[in-house]
Amino acid sequence: ITESGFVALGTAIAQQLSSRAGMRLLDLGRNPEATDDGVKRFVAQAIANTSTGGFNNAATLSELRLDDIGCGDTGMVALATALPSLSNWKHLTTNPATLRCGTNPDISVVGWTALAEALPTLLGLAELDVSGCYGMGDTGAVGLCEAGVKHGGTGGGLNLLNVDGCGIGN
Question: Would you say 128 and 162 are in contact if contact means Cβ atoms under 8 Å apart?
Answer without folding.
Answer: yes
